[in-house]
Design goal:
Layout: H1 2-25, E1 26-30, E2 45-49, H2 52-55, E3 63-67, E4 73-80, E5 86-89, E6 92-95, E7 98-99, E8 120-121, H3 122-126, E9 135-139, H4 149-152, E10 155-156, E11 160-169
Antiparallel strand pairs: 1-2, 2-11, 3-4, 3-11, 4-9, 5-6, 5-8, 6-7, 9-10
């Protein structure tokens, strides 16, 4: 009888810990669409760390989930931080006039010379030459098929839910790095 009592308490404690982690520390998301390919694919299940940015700053190239509007959350890669100048020239991404390495895009870049990311500057698409304070500039990895800051502009830093920490489904694609 005592064994069942301890087992019951252990199960209840485990359930409470799981609810605490799920509610306050991590959130689960499903990737919807192809905008983050080849890094993330439609249907991938993600674990998002909701508290990581309470202790650290958002970094360039972090993969984040943010509230796009009241009902939709998007997953994108942070490209521009406040004060950054962003531009694409000759199919290469530049941040503050320095070329940004994007090896995670190599699988999608066409070998036939076609442009993967059309040229742009922030001033041309957002009307300002730099990312404003409290804002971020985000892009999907699949630059040809992504609704991102090139279309909807900057996002508020406050809209960030958290950093994508783990891809846990499908099991064949489990991963913790997205660079």
């Amino acid at each position: 009888m005592n064994k069942h009592k301890y087992l019951f308490h252990a199960v209840v404690l485990a359930a409470l810990v799981a609810v605490f982690f799920r509610t306050f520390i991590f959130a689960s998301y499903i990737v919807d669409g192809e905008s983050m390919e080849p890094t993330l694919h439609d249907g991938n299940l993600l674990m998002v760390n909701k508290v990581s940015y309470e202790w650290t700053e958002i970094h360039r190239q972090d993969v984040i989930v943010f509230h796009y509007n009241e009902k939709d959350d998007y997953v994108k890669r942070v490209i521009g931080l406040p004060g950054d100048e962003i531009a694409v020239k000759d199919d290469e991404l530049y941040v503050n006039d320095e070329r940004l390495e994007e090896t995670y895009l190599d699988k999608l870049r066409p070998e036939n010379g076609e442009v993967f990311t059309p040229s742009f500057t922030l001033e041309g698409i957002t009307g300002t030459p730099t990312v404003p304070p409290g804002k971020l500039f985000v892009l999907g990895d699949n630059r040809r098929h992504s609704l991102d800051s090139r279309r909807f502009g900057f996002i508020d830093s406050a809209s960030v839910v958290g950093k994508v920490s783990i891809r846990y489904w499908p099991m064949s694609q489990v991963g913790i790095t997205f660079q």
